[in-house]
Amino acid sequence: MATVTVVPEGDSSAAESGAAFSDIHSAGWDESQLRKYPFQCRPIPRLSQNDPRAEILINNEEPVVLTDTSLVCPALKWDLSYLQENIGNGDFSVYIAQNHKFLYYDEKKMANFENFIPQSQRVEMKFSEFVSRMHQAEQSGGRERVYLQQTLNDTVGRKIVMDFLGFNWNWINKQQAKRNWGQLTSNLLLIGMEGNVTPAHYDEQQNFFAQIKGYKRCILFPPDQFDCLYPYPVHHPCDRQSQVDFENPDCVKFPNFKNVFGYEAVVGPGDVLYIPMYWWHHIESLLNGGVTITVNFWYKGAPTPKRIEYPLKAHQKVAIMRNIEKMLGEALGDPHEVGPLLNMMIKGRYDQNLS
Ligand SMILES: O=C(O)CCC(=O)C(=O)O
């Protein structure tokens, strides 16, 4: 089977994130707009959708930036005033935080961890309120930031519907069919302030991440780096999110984080990043880059093949770990008993080299 790797051959110098971008700086942003982290990255390939290497990468569930899909072409005119005029009078979920990090949490799991204090609040508001709130936050120069994250739904106005219908469904439907992916589950509209960060997490869906306005830096890690990224337990509200603060990693609590190795790309208007299911992703709107607008396309993965091939892939092992945690939570009747039981099972038994 043909393979392409996300690491360009013979490009060891590109290991440093600075060098990684040397060929794509031409427009729109520069390295001073990137936050600094204590790990190395290699570039995610930027390819034409017609390049056979792009096809191979997606088939292998490896990330790639596609530069010419026209996926969201009619949306490239979107800005705050066009959206305010046309997006309708529905409610929008807006997260409000007192710093730049918008760590996702599942509200349904908050009852499992009563002492959990979310670092951002979700507030439902009209689009015009969001715009005022964002301008207020920008002008006050205070710590407060906002991030709109709303699934596109049927409350949007006629012009937005027309734009949506003009997306390149022909291209994306073919992508879905070729890989036997399940249904399109949602399109999340994200409107962020410059400097906003979505910390590293993985999703259980395939994602075509279409950038519309402004630039975002996307740092991805393959599923086999699970042990370097220390996700919260499955029953925790921050399930699927890394516990490691990239800006101030606790190397005692998270010793394997020093081995983490990323793949990165800066995406701008018209670019589409394929984020494979179970791949970790950290996403930041560039510093001093203005407002960012993105629409993603989340698809259910392909059904499990009838014949399982061994050895299993890293993402299949992640799925197994998730199922074990869920089963134990149910069997024990209390998610807080999962950790102690797993420790009892492993410590002094599976964590030593037995002869
Ligand atoms: O763009 C962002 O800030 C986060 C988006 C994301 O995590 C996703 O599309 O899965």
TrEMBL record:
Domain of life of the native organism: Eukaryota
Record localization: Cytoplasm, Perinuclear region; Nucleus
Transmembrane feature ranges: none
Entry-linked Gene3D superfamilies: Clavaminate synthase-like, Jelly Rolls
Biological process according to GO: negative regulation of Notch signaling pathway; negative regulation of vasculature development; regulation of vascular endothelial growth factor receptor signaling pathway
InterPro entries from the UniProt entry: Cupin_8, FIH-1_dom_II, JmjC_dom, RmlC-like_jellyroll
GO MF annotations, alphabetized: [protein]-asparagine 3-dioxygenase activity; ankyrin repeat binding; metal ion binding; peptidyl-histidine dioxygenase activity
Claim: Cytoplasm is one of the keywords in the record: yes
A single Gene Ontology CC term: perinuclear region of cytoplasm
EC number: 1.14.11.30, 1.14.11.n4
Pfam families listed in its UniProt record: Cupin_8
Keywords linked to the UniProt accession: Acetylation, Cytoplasm, Dioxygenase, Iron, Metal-binding, Nucleus, Oxidoreductase, Transcription, Transcription regulation
SMART domains, per database record: JmjC (SM00558)
Names of required cofactors: Fe(2+)
Catalysed conversion reaction: L-asparaginyl-[ankyrin-repeat domain protein] + 2-oxoglutarate + O2 = (3S)-3-hydroxy-L-asparaginyl-[ankyrin-repeat domain protein] + succinate + CO2; L-asparaginyl-[hypoxia-inducible factor alpha subunit] + 2-oxoglutarate + O2 = (3S)-3-hydroxy-L-asparaginyl-[hypoxia-inducible factor alpha subunit] + succinate + CO2; L-aspartyl-[ankyrin-repeat domain protein] + 2-oxoglutarate + O2 = (3S)-3-hydroxy-L-aspartyl-[ankyrin-repeat domain protein] + succinate + CO2; L-histidyl-[ankyrin-repeat domain protein] + 2-oxoglutarate + O2 = (3S)-3-hydroxy-L-histidyl-[ankyrin-repeat domain protein] + succinate + CO2
Domain called JmjC: residue spans: 144-314
Entry keyword annotation includes Transcription: yes
UniProt-listed PANTHER family: HYPOXIA-INDUCIBLE FACTOR 1 ALPHA INHIBITOR-RELATED, HYPOXIA-INDUCIBLE FACTOR 1-ALPHA INHIBITOR
Name of this chain's protein: Hypoxia-inducible factor 1-alpha inhibitor
Organism annotation: Scleropages formosus (Asian bonytongue)
Gene encoding the protein: HIF1AN
